[in-house]
Design goal:
Elements lengths: L5 E7 L7 H11 L4 E7 L5 H7 L5 E6 L13 E2 L1 H6 L4 E4 L5 E4 L2 H12 L10 E4 L3 H12 L5 E4 L3 H11 L3 E3 L5 H4 L5 E4 L23 E4 L8 H8 L4 E2 L2 H16 L7 H8 L1
Parallel strand pairs: 1-2, 1-3, 4-6, 7-8, 7-10, 8-9, 10-11, 11-12
Antiparallel strand pairs: 3-5, 5-6
Helix pairs in contact: 1-9, 1-10, 4-5, 4-9
């Protein structure tokens, strides 16, 4: 132990479902760091006051989850380019000069998870198909464009939401009607589900995989269940598949390194600790 207690945490409303305390707690124990990572249930009306108080209480920073990811951006003095591109913050750093920096590591986590699960895959070798047009899709699209994806085919049950997202990212993003996305999958470099469809307690993902070939990497940001029906069906067609848990694990690493001064490792031991 260092004798210098370091504090970080996660805010949301509600917060009891968050796996972040278990994740960061595992790293703190692994590296013998004198610190705590604290879950905090913060109602929207209390958000501004909480952000003001936490650095005074000795916090180095926090993670931010629903419903605060967009609202907290207005409370930061500075926003990283990737957080600006997504329009949301999931990692806050209380800096030594008293300023507040907002970052978004979701896209980083998404890409790091893909590279860990499929080391030979590269974004620039073909089009990606992204299902969904919510906040998660926004982060995925921004990360794929930054990684060099030549085209992103975006499809959502409500086409207006997909069109609105496309207008923010430009010509490399095109919209496919939900009913036609089964055809758009043919020859894709990557298929991503960012919707809640297929998650425990949610309806199945109603997308035809008839044109899905083994050249397509398939991933689902859902991790409950760990193997969604999409991943099971894709694997049966010879596709490489990557589950969504690694995105959660990898997106946590940059914040942990900044707050606690240790670059953490994402490995099977961490996965087991978070799933236990």
């Amino acid at each position: 132990m260092s004798g210098k207690l370091r504090l970080a945490g996660v805010i949301g409303h509600p917060i009891s479902h968050s796996k972040s305390p278990r994740l960061h707690g595992h790293w703190l124990k692994r590296y013998g760091i004198d610190g705590h990572y604290i879950p905090m249930n913060v109602a929207p009306d209390d958000l501004a006051r909480t952000i003001e108080l936490l650095p005074q209480l000795g916090f180095a920073g926090i993670n931010v989850t629903l419903p605060h990811k967009e609202a907290v951006t207005a409370l930061c003095d500075e926003i990283t380019p990737r957080a600006k591109a997504v329009g949301a913050v999931n990692t806050v750093i209380f800096q030594e000069d008293g300023s507040i920096l907002g970052d978004n590591t979701d896209g980083y986590g998404f890409m790091a998870n893909l590279y860990a699960g499929a080391p030979n895959w590269r974004a620039n070798t073909g089009p990606a198909v992204v299902l969904g047009a919510g906040g998660a899709a926004r982060g995925v699209v921004a990360a794929l464009l930054d990684a060099g994806a030549p085209q992103i085919i975006l499809s959502n049950r409500t086409v207006e939401r997909a069109t609105a997202l496309q207008s923010e990212f430009g010509a490399r993003v095109v919209v496919s009607a939900w009913d036609d996305v089964g055809d758009a999958i043919k020859g894709a470099n990557l298929l991503v589900n960012t919707t809640s469809l297929g998650m425990d307690g949610q309806p199945a993902l109603p997308v035809s995989l008839d044109h899905l070939g083994p050249e397509t990497l398939v991933t689902d940001i859902v991790y409950a269940p760990l193997k969604t029906q999409l991943l099971i069906d894709a694997a049966a067609r010879g596709c490489a598949v990557v589950d969504g848990l690694g995105m959660l694990l990898h997106q946590a690493a940059p914040g942990f390194e900044t707050w606690f001064g240790q670059k953490p490792i994402v490995d099977d031991e961490l996965r087991d600790a978070v799933l236990s």
